[in-house]
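Table 4 source record.
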Amino acid sequence: MKRKFLSILMSVALTAGILAGCGGSQPAAETAAQTSAETSAVAASTEAKEAVASATEALGKRPEGGYKFGYTCMDGTNPFFVILEKTIKAEVEKNGDTLISTDPANNVSLQITQIEDMITQGIDAIFLNPAEAEGILPALDALKKANIPIINFDTEVADLSYVQSYVGSDNVNAGKVCGEDLVKNYPQGGNIIVLDSPTMNSITDRTKGFLQAIEGKGFKIVAQQDAKGNLQEAMRISEDLLQAHGDVVAIFGGNDPTALGALAAANAAGIKKCLIYGVDGSPDIKTELATGKSLIAGTGAQSPINIAKKSVEVMYKHLSGEKVEARYPVETFLINSENVSQFGTDGWQ
């Protein structure tokens, strides 16, 4: 009986020991998992800090052989962007640096591919004007991942948190001064056509400013269509619209090529009385204004030369490690037949 009792006690003790062992193994596993998670978190944090430190240290250190900059704009054939690219190229080459330029011809998919190619070529930073404000976001993600600084010029990307700074014209004012001039010339109002480009933020802002200026002034928009900022597209659309609305008193184009396309269509239709406005202040528009006989009434002038120079200035400032502002607006103003002689017709202001 005694031996049996001892046997039972030993069994109980053994069982308790096993249970204690099993119960004790769970906290040990949890501790191990927690330690592993904490180690991973510390490693990730250290890696992130090292990446930030590396990026910070890179600022102010000029690469051997100079900087290699990328450049992309929505349409490299547009006279505005031709002079802008030429000016940026001249400015960076003064400093012994190089510029790799691409032209997506208003195709955002092609622009994304071209930017990816420039990343592969090892660009240090990029001057960027998007073909589409929203559509360009995949390229911005790629640039961010590659730690490549972006100076966004002329047309804003949809999310400015990706860029170091934006340099561009006061586009709302560029449209506003055209609208104010129209009100001055037609205080009684009338029917008008608006040729915009909803995917281009710069043209959207110009249209916004124009419409704000004419609001409540007796004007009726009989047609508003997307001309894609393109002369040929604007001419094609205007030909159809003017057949249906030959009594319009004015046409507003989101840029000078659009206005020139509308002018070609109006001239072909034999229209003698219609005020056509553009935005840019291009030599072609100023030549029309200088004749004193053109249907072109005015342009919300901007300066691609000043935008280019400011973009380069801001880029170098950032690369040197200095703080830059989020935005650098460049002045816009009206050029018409009355003041065009002050600006000349053989170049940009």
